[in-house]
Amino acid sequence: MKRANVQLSVDGIAVEVPAGANVAAAVAQLGLRFRRSRSGEARAPLCGMGLCFECRVSIDGIAHQRACVVVARDGMQVQRDD
Predict the structure, then answer these.
(1) 6-30: buried (b, 16+ CB within 10 Å) or exposed (e) per residue?
(2) pLDDT at residue 46, rounded to an integer
(3) Nearest to 49, CA basis, from 69, 63, 71
């Protein structure tokens, strides 16, 4: 039987999202900003389809992953660049 939810970690905070949800949904559910620009401005997803790169995070130690196009998996470790 397929699980209805998956659990992952964003900056060490456990979060549960529906199976099939993307990593951006997990970060947004926690109410966290995604990253900061070089000038210090808060950045967040803009396009929602991987074109703008504003939702970049590190996933399981791999930097610059686009959170809006990566499906959340159980045990995934996400780090924001904040």
Answers:
(1) bebebeeeebebeeebbbbbbbbee
(2) 86
(3) 69
Query: For the chain, what is the largest distance between any 2 Cα atoms, rounded to a whole number of angstroms?
Result: 47
Residue pair 27/6 in contact by the 8 Å Cβ criterion: no
What local confidence, expressed as pLDDT, does residue 77 receive? 98
Task: Give which of 54, 67, 56 is closest to 8, Cα–Cα.
Answer: 67
Residues of the chain with pLDDT under 70: 1-2, 82
Six-digit token string for 47: 């396009």
pLDDT at 8: 98
Backbone angles phi, psi at 71, to 5 degrees: -75, 130
